[in-house]
Amino acid sequence: MAGSYPEFRWRDAELDDAALLSRLFIAGWRQTYAGLMPAALLDRLETSPHHDPSSWSRRLERRPPDRWTRILLAPDPVGFVWFGREEGRLPGYRGEIEKIYLLDSAQGRGLGRAALAASFQILEAESLSPVAIWVFDVNRRAQAFYRHLGGRPLGERALVFAEDGEEFWETAYGWPPGADLACG
Given pLDDT bands bounded at 50, 70 and 90, which one contains residue 164? Predict the structure, then answer.
């Protein structure tokens, strides 16, 4: 769990973290999807109304009590996790990791696993388990990571990016209540 990783620290995101969350999201996407998604899509992220600081401000302002945004620190911000109630797309699943991004420079040290484990602990304590996460099929590294941690494929869906008309498939991975990611 989170305590097993001495480097793991996180904090709640505040309204004044909107620009930071936007930068972390864009950097995370560009690092993760370079060569896997069209360069034009990645180049436009900063001007997208879905990823700019004002979109993050809106998310943080309307945050319901069952939705958390935490910034990962090592010791400076290196990523974030946004998680909470599953929004009805996966019957039987009550919790969801909506987004988790960790900069390449911070990967391979157990921070992603620790952030997921800590998120799962909160979701379970709030009766929001079992837990699921959606991941793009082109992101084979993340899919292997989730399978290694015990995630099981639940289903697929297509997302279309309107600007390009590009369709990308996602697979949902799920964990049962009480999943122990430390043993994955």
Answer: low
Kindly report, residue by residue over 88-141, the tens digit of the pLDDT: 889 999 999 999 999 999 988 889 999 999 999 999 999 999 999 999 999 999
φ, ψ of residue 173 in degrees (nearest 5): -115, 140
Question: Is pLDDT above 70 for 162?
Answer: no
- Dist CA 107 CA 103 (whole Å): 7
For residue 12, give Cα distances in angstroms to 16, 27, 53, 77, 93: 11, 20, 17, 12, 24
Alpha-carbon distances of 87 from 50, 115, 181, rounded to whole Å: 18, 21, 23
What is the DSSP annotation of 59-79? HHHT--TTEEEEEEESSSEEE
Burial of 167 (0-12, 13-18, 19+ CB in 10 A): exposed
Find the radius of gyration of the CA atoms of the chain: 16
- Global confidence as pTM: 0.89
Q: Which two tokens stand for residue 11?
A: 């904090």
94, 86 Cβ separation under 8 angstroms: yes
